[in-house]
Amino acid sequence: MKPVLFEKKGVKAYITFNRPEAMNSMTPEGFQLLAEYFKEAQADDNIRVIILTGAGDKAFCSGADLKKTIPLISDGQLDFELLNDAVLKNVPIWKPIIAAVNGYCLAGGTEILQATDIRIASEDAIFGLPEPKWSIMAAAGSLVRLARQIPYCQAMEILLTGEQLTAEKAEKIGLINKVVPKEELMNEVERYADIICQNGPLAIQNTKKAVIELLNLPIEEAFHKEILYAKAVFESSDAKEGVAAFAEKREPQFRGS
After folding, report:
1. Rounded to an integer, what distance in angstroms lies between the CA atom of residue 63 and that of residue 69?
2. pTM for the whole structure
3. Are residues 157 and 208 in the same domain?
């Protein structure tokens, strides 16, 4: 059985951490598959949204397997580029990624979460970066992303204490979007995905690309470049179709061109 699964259903791609017997912890093979699946979804013009979740009902992902993966990292036997691609460090994935957090989301799980765009969690979900408790570091993106995504003091509390957060606290500090009852999790995630999939795919992907690439530019430069991302979309066939559909009071038929 593969440690990470990949499935396409219509315009949606589903990536699932698949080691429920080990709290969906990640092996070297799992990291490699995760990286490959993200890139495959990005390369497929038919895919408009990616849904990321965990198998079973106990965990989303509990990070790197402490017995199978961490020793390889400590001994310098695991290529960091493999890990970097899996957690989307400098990997251009412009398709929106929605996380369905169904239980424990710890260590690398919370790190991968920060590479997603919309995050819905079940009410029993648990988050945290416990790495310092083992005298290792949360270096799969959190040292860069976390303080950019939530208030600095909240980020430092998570990074320095290694303590766990409830879903309620994670929502309060802005780490996730919404908390729902466990039985409603996938329905709510699918609802978000359906809304996004009805929108123009060029507009959606260029919006994500622009936000990420303009985020840390000086504001004057960012404003100057913002229109460059929009220009190709405004001049597309989809934009013409969208305006025509609005005028004709019908549903638009977007082609991604």
Report:
1. 10
2. 0.94
3. no
Of the listed 111, 157, 190, 226, which one is catalytic? 111
pLDDT of 230 strictly over 70: yes
Counting the structural domains of the chain, the total is 2
Q: Are residues 53 and 168 in the same domain?
A: yes
> Out of 81, 131, 157, 226, which one is annotated catalytic?
131
Query: pLDDT grade, residue 246 (50/70/90)?
Result: confident
The tokens describing 156, both together, are 């430092």
pLDDT value, residue 103: 96
7 carries an active-site annotation? no
Percent of the chain with pLDDT over 70: 94
* Bridge partner residues of 12 (DSSP): 9, 49
111 is annotated as an active-site residue: yes
Residue 251 and residue 41: Cα distance in Å, rounded?
Answer: 26
Token duo for residue 184:
């409603």
From 197, 214, 238, give the residue that closes a domain.
197
